[in-house]
Specification:
Blueprint (H helix, E strand, L loop, with lengths): L11 H10 L1
């Protein structure tokens, strides 16, 4: 998730979803 570096803490949950899908 390249966005992980540029996303706020709020997006952490949405990032976790993508990581699980990957």
């Amino acid at each position: 998730t390249p966005r992980k570096k540029t996303t706020p803490a709020a997006s952490c949950s949405h990032v976790s979803k993508w990581e699980k899908i990957s």
